[in-house]
Amino acid sequence: METNEATTVFTPLAEDAFLSLGTQQIAYIKAVDLPDGAHAVAIFSADGKPMAAAPSVEVAQALLRQHELEPALVH
C-alpha cells in the first residue's frame, strides 16, 4: 500500500547552535535605571551581551535598524 504523506524528521540542534540562533539578526532592548538614577534603554545582543545604551526606545530601535538588526522589546 502506497502512502502520499511526507515524513518530516527533526534533528535536534546542538546547544551551541541553538544559543547562536538570531545573533546576527536580533537585538533586545530593555528600559533600565542607571546607577545615578537616570533612565536609559539598554541594547543587548541576542546572546545577552550588552552592546549599547540609548535615551529612548525609539532611538534604540533606529540604531538597531541602521545596523540591519531587528529590535525586540524585553519587559
Task: Describe the structure in your own words.
- This protein is α+β, with helices and mostly antiparallel strands and 75 residues long.
- The chain has a domain at 24-73.
- The chain is 20% helix and 32% strand.
- It is built from two helices and four strands.
- It has helices spanning 15-19, 57-66; strands at residues 26-33, 39-45, 50-54, 70-73.
- A four-stranded mixed beta sheet has the order 3-2-1-4, covered by helices on one side.
- β2 and β3 form a beta hairpin.
- The protein is elongated and about 60 Å long.
Q: Ranges with pLDDT <50 over ≥5 residues?
A: none
Morphology call: elongated
Rg over alpha carbons: 19 Å
Strand order of the largest sheet: 3-2-1-4
What's the total count of β strands?
Answer: 4
Task: Give, in order, the helices and strands.
Answer: HEEEHE
Number of helices: 2
Percent of sequence in beta strands: 25-35%
> Between the first and last Cα atoms, what is the distance in angstroms?
54 Å
Q: Residue share in helices?
A: 10-25%
> What kind of sheet is the major sheet?
4 strands, mixed
Q: What is the overall pLDDT average?
A: 84
SS-based class: alpha+beta
